[in-house]
């Protein structure tokens, strides 16, 4: 099994071809290129470990304090940094929409969904209190959902810092018209896929938030885990 070709190469190739075909049939003013990209079949590639998830303390949406490791080990985890009032269409709302689409697909396969969790972690603990995160989550955070989706925050920016820094997420609060700290947070959108051991195995940026790709990556990690579990241990067999 080889490492998967870079997402950038495969998506760019698909977009280039779609642009050529779109030009041949021009007539729909403003129509964007058609998506011709096909996700690599699950289990036919490997996702190398990139880094370990950092340590820290977080609040869940019920206000309970936990070690962050509780939410990034034991299951395959899809993690997104966000803040509840973000309105950038290619920012937090895009990540939320993509994860919601992916959730629906996983929920239709309960044998997969039970082995996966989603995590949304706020960049803004000052405004995104546990209560605010609970309102934002609505029924998505229900404990009896097949796929568990956790909406987390921290006690302060100071407690958030090691988590954001550990994932390489730089954050900048933009000033308002009077030069005072405003409510708009500048950050690069990234969604992280972690294995059951808490290791980051893929990082998706805005251009790469493709539900089919993410679904196959999740299946690939689960298949990897199943193969490892099926191997005889030393001293057996």
TrEMBL record:
<dbReference type="InterPro" id="IPR013766">
    <property type="entry name" value="Thioredoxin_domain"/>
</dbReference>
<protein>
    <submittedName>
        <fullName>SCO family protein</fullName>
    </submittedName>
</protein>
<feature type="domain" description="Thioredoxin">
    <location>
        <begin position="47"/>
        <end position="223"/>
    </location>
</feature>
<dbReference type="InterPro" id="IPR036249">
    <property type="entry name" value="Thioredoxin-like_sf"/>
</dbReference>
<comment type="similarity">
    <text>Belongs to the SCO1/2 family.</text>
</comment>
<keyword id="KW-0186">Copper</keyword>
<dbReference type="Pfam" id="PF02630">
    <property type="entry name" value="SCO1-SenC"/>
</dbReference>
<dbReference type="InterPro" id="IPR003782">
    <property type="entry name" value="SCO1/SenC"/>
</dbReference>
<keyword id="KW-0732">Signal</keyword>
<feature type="signal peptide">
    <location>
        <begin position="1"/>
        <end position="24"/>
    </location>
</feature>
